[in-house]
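DM from R.C. (forwarded with permission)

"hey, sorry to bug you on a friday — could you get me a structure for this? deadline for the figure draft is monday and I only need the backbone to look sensible"
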Amino acid sequence: MADIPGVQIILDDMIITGETSELHLQTLGRVLQRLEEYNLRVNEGKCEFFKDKVQFCGHEIDSHGLHKTGEKMRAIVDAPEITNVKQLRAFLGIVQYYARFLPNLATILHPLHQLLKKDVKWKWTPKCEDAVKTVKTMITSNLVLMNFDPTIPVILACDASAYGLGAVLSHKLPDGTERPIAFASRTLNSAEQNYSQIDKEATALVWGVKKFHTYLYGNKFTLVTDHKPLLAIFSPRKGLSSTTGARLQRYALFLSGYIYDIQYKSTTSHGNCDSLSRLPLKETEINKLDATEEFLNSLIDKLPVTCSQIASATRKDPVLSKVYEIVSTGSIGVDTSDLELKPYLNRRTELSLHQGCVMWGNRVIIPSSLRNQVMEELHSGHVGIVKMKSLARSYAWWPNLDSELEELTKHCSGCMANRPSPKESPIHPWEFPKKPWSRVHIDFAGPFMGYMYLVLVDAYSKWPIVKIMKKTTAGHTIDVLRAIFADYGVCDELVSDNGPQFVSEEFRHFLRMNGVKQTFSAPYHPRTNGLAEKFVQTLKQALKAAKHDQGTIAIKVSKFLLQYRNAEHATTKESPAKLFLGRSLVTRLDKIKPNLQKRVESEQAKMVRSVNDRQFDIGQSVAVRDYRAGRDKWVSGKIDSKTGPVSYTVEIVPGVTWRRHADQIRASSENVPVTRDVLIPILPITDTPIQVPASASAGVVPAASSPTLPQAPMTATTGTTPDKSPDVVPERRYPVRERRTPVRLDL
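My reply, with the result:
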């Protein structure tokens, strides 16, 4: 049909027109011919020909243009007559909501405002009726209504009263004002009127979305409600609580197929929908039994009491009757500080009504008069407290249900007699001792591998002692313990189990005489003496592993103890030997480790041997190092004396000795060329210039002075100063200080 002018098609709806009757007939003929070519048929009963106006795609079309259909305005035009002040206030709510679009509104509504005065008796007059009709006409005109535009944001506002639902589909214009597209309302049926208020408000949202599905599906829109709890339940960005009512869960699942945001608006600002819900059209929706109703019926049928009994008892219960009113009306008209009501008020957004019963999620709230019957039914199988609670959570609830079920189980003799042992309590740790060998844990291990073992463990260092026992009587135990005390001293406290050796009067007397405090673990509770018990397990595992090793059982125990005492303990992070003895025990493994002390001693021995190789005897002829400038490096001499381990004085010529280190001396056998010119006197060179005294410039003539030869140092052998003209000039070891004749002034 695309090439035929004057034809528009949406899915299977077709509209045909023309500027004149002749063109209209020509177009109609071409359409029918085209349908015949493609073997398509139309239903004559659904066709309308030569109409002055038609409804097409939600609009009414006539020669004057595009108009809203009556269906969109019927909720306003056909609204029921106003019979009381409450309904009048509801009607004025929607009028005031769109007051900005209605001119001369105050004048038109004057007769209606007169009825709202306190002292005026209600009397509906023709003027009041005319005012209502005038306002309805203005609201449904182009002054307020506008056509749907998918490019403008869409708002769907819904509300519910005790008996009706209202919905308004609007556009939000760029200036922030709302212009309605369509109005809708209906009366709740008898089943829906028994819903809780939150269920009614949710029903209004779902019904409004279904009503305007064509405008909303696939487009993002905003849902507006005046019931705040629904924001969390229907929020597309939040998960749904498991305690939410079954009906609300189903509604949330339905709304998840749409793209929307949900928004809260107070009742005073929600007048357009509030009016429609309070003045709904006299029509209802008759539905088949709701799936939620079937589900809740099946739950109540499984209880030992009937739905009618619960409903009757709920109305008579002093607490649940108030809860029923709160849930049904949605308003709290009671004292919220009442402790009995508090558990219900905390859950009021999750409570609903079903056939006169108050529901929390999918659980029936049982009135106090029927609770014993329900508990007896839950306990009839003696399934245990956990399964009883699980079963109860599927059917019923009331405050303190879990604690009442626990009390019921505690007073049941059959349940208590066959109750399993309680869960083991956490181990209470022993107080950590302040010093080694203060508290010692003792125990017997065996018979194991043909022997009995007396085990002692120090609580501070975890140092273990194991003695192989042939007899385990109290006397033999005392003898072994006395020998241990002789090695390590007497401990302060001894912890043991209730073995016959330890509880005997002989053993107790031995401990009392030694001033040892005796502590027993709880009977049949080995974990109390866990330190010794744990070590016994470790010892047995080690001996089992060494079963095929060579050696006697005593050798195996000794090897195990040596390694155990040196190993780091999991609790202290230190080895028992280090905490008990202050050092680790030396083992064969220590022999293979590098030893710093031995390495130093070995190196020192090498040095001693090297020094011994450089020893000289008194009177031995040697060559010594000469450090005088301009001379040969070595001169001959003989050892005069030994001043240290490697220091000597060497006589060069009679009366002259030099002190030298062994590294500066060589034996004559080394064939060192030695010069003999040491006997030639040499005038030493000094760096000190001859200075003229300051007094010379003053005309004072000093005494004649000249540089003097440096004096030879004191020798170590004679302690005397050599002659002024020695045959050998001693080496100068430091600068010579110049001597000058003192200057005297003649006054």
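R.C.: lifesaver. The longest strand covers residues 178-187.
me: no worries. Residues 596-613 form the longest helix (18 residues).
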